[in-house]
Amino acid sequence: MALGDYEASSAYQIVEDIYHTVISRDIVKRRRINKQDLFDRVVKFIIENMGKTFSANSISQFLKSEHRKVSVESIYNYIRWLEQAFIIYPCQRYDLQGKSVLKTQEKYYLADCSLKYALLGYNRKMLDGVLENIVFLELKRRGYDVFVGKNGTKEIDFIAFRRDEKIYVQVCVQLPENSDHEIDNLMEIRDHYPKFVVTMNPLDTGIENGIRIVHLKDFLLEDIK
Q1: Tell me: the pLDDT tens digits for 184-212?
Q2: Which of 114, 211, 146 is nearest to 172 (CA)?
Q3: What is the dihedral of CA 197, 200, 202, 207, to 10 degrees?
Q4: Contacts for 87 with CB less than 8 Å, ≥ 6 apart
Q5: pLDDT in tens, 123-132
Q6: Distance between the two ends of the chain, CA-based, in angstroms?
Q7: What is the DSSP string of 183-201?
Q8: How many C-beta neighbours within 10 Å does residue 108 have?
Q9: Which of 19, 107, 163, 168 could, after both became Cys, cross-link 195 (CB 3.0–4.6 A)?
Q10: Are 200 and 174 in contact (CB under 8 A)?
Q11: Who's near 59: CB < 8 A, 6+ residues apart?
Q12: In Å, what is the CA distance from 142 to each residue of 160, 163, 177, 202?
């Protein structure tokens, strides 16, 4: 099926069917969830906010603004069950200065980005998050332990560990014309492990101050070191 030649509408329908089958069979029925409409709304919120920081409490407060009531404990359960069904993956924060994993402000990424398109449709604003999601999954596929990097007040999209290896990765659709934000955040890291910026713009690629700027397809197809 993955190699089939489908029209867009058929592809959307297939992904929707897979999603609803997994949700209904693996979570709603197994966990005996009574208020499926609330569960579905929580799932939609999580998918809408892939790659962003949120908490069970912030989801609960958001739902209150929609005049829906669901406990923080229930939301924690929903998130855990989505992880167990391999719908989402958690990505914890790693403090580069303290060299420790932080217990708060983790992010979540989808096991398949097409789920977001199937449920929410296409929106240009999604591209940054989807690109980040793709890079996260590729790092996991290569056997890395992947974290969101915290360097003081700055954030690194990903810091990835594999045995004695470590790499840093920033992700953007294209480098901002009037900002060196992506490069500067990496340059502030005072070690000599490989640093990358992954982009969709072929004109941005190259090496700047020792930082490799690579196109997404090259990052996915080559053995980047």
Answers
A1: 899 999 899 999 999 999 999 999 999 99
A2: 211
A3: 0
A4: 22, 23, 43, 110, 111, 115
A5: 778 888 999 9
A6: 33
A7: HHHHHTS-S-S-EEEEES-
A8: 22
A9: 168
A10: yes
A11: 42, 45, 46, 70, 75
A12: 10, 12, 32, 24
